[in-house]
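Objective 1b. Sequence-to-structure analysis of Transcriptional regulator.
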Amino acid sequence: MSVTTVRLQAEVEQQLEAIAGRLHRSKGWVINQALSEYIEKQQLEQERWKQTLEAMESAAQGKVVDASEVHSWLNSWGTDNEQDAPRSGK
């Protein structure tokens, strides 16, 4: 494990100490947890953005499904005649 030095605002330091005390953990542990969650969130956001751009490109190419087909498919969920997801014609 490596060591990184960070300058914290006094208020952040106080809150960090309070959280660490309540959890009976070290400040380093709390910081590690917080950064791990932040990094995971950023990775998910990056993936969502990538998927959004891909979806926009597909729509621009005309790869779309009519809303009535989507509604019909959704309404079939949980019935004896559940439909497969509709696909674009392209």
